[in-house]
Amino acid sequence: MSDTSTDSTAVCPAHAPADHPKIKPTKIGILIANLGTPDATDYWSMRRYLGEFLSDQRVVDYPKWLWQPLLQLIILSKRPFTSGAAYRSIWNTEKDESPLLTITKEQTAAIRSEMEKAYGNGVMVDFCMRYGNPSTQSKVREMVEAGCTKILFFPLYPHYAGATSATANDQFFRALMQEKWQPIARIVPPYFEEPAYIDALAQSVEKAYANLDKKPDVLVCSYHGVPERYLKEGDPYHCQCQKTTRLLKERLGWEDTEITTTFQSRFGPEEWLRPYTVEEVARLAETGKKNIAVCAPAFSADCIETLEEINEEIRESFEEAGGEEFTYIPCLNADEAHISALSKVIRDNLKGWI
Known about the structure:
Elements: E1 27-37, H1 43-54, H2 64-88, H3 99-119, E2 123-132, H4 136-145, E3 148-155, H5 162-177, E4 184-187, H6 195-210, E5 218-224, H7 228-232, H8 237-252, E6 259-264, H9 277-286, E7 291-295, H10 304-320, E8 325-328, H11 336-350
Parallel strand pairs: 1-2, 1-3, 3-4, 5-6, 5-7, 7-8
């Protein structure tokens, strides 16, 4: 533990000798986790970030002897340039950080405010990234140093996937392994069917549609893809995504023809979950659906996959196929209804602790 001699909140335990080290009041830590972000868009910053991300065997599970030479010698020699250009197209130049980092900070501040209203000074709310900074290990260390004897770890992924939720949890557990006195830990489960989350999604769609002159022919719910093999190996991601779309459709009171599920961000030679968003939007345009909207329910915050891939690449695919009106509905981000939903999930998972 850190030196508490100058900490006014630290006290000597009751019935302890006078020379016993002072101890800080115990707190409950709420650690929010997101995917991650490069520190900058230059080649070496991108290479460090992509190297960490693509070396994660939850993300790419090929044997290391096969994958690492290909990654280090070929992919990481070229991809930092193209990825850096993509990030520069969406970069928050005012704050010199990625939109994901900006939004995650906003979400954390809003959730912290809600938790302080509910629990006062008994909780500590912060965020970490699975890849890049701030690292999971650094934030676990800070929480332990601050007196957190219990930590609620919250991966901000509505749907469970080995390549998202599981690897975030892995990193949290690895951080706990470094602590001499481990805090008690809980993991927030996926919240893909949480009514408050579904209602927040529905409200975002309703608000977007209210600002349009004409209702889109179809709402495309574009989820991040994973190899189809993962589904066959037991990953529940595909089923959870399908259920979110169904619940959203029911909440909106729509017909099956007004909403569809697709998957984006395919990488590598394998077959991934279908239909692919980039192909499906073109098919919709070719079959007469000239006015569509796209939302990304699997992303808690706008990022490279939404701001660049959906709003640029996927939009272009639709328009080149004859599409006319393309509306991107932003992620829930720090929207009030989203913060309310996330706060409810946190409160539910703190039961018995506070």
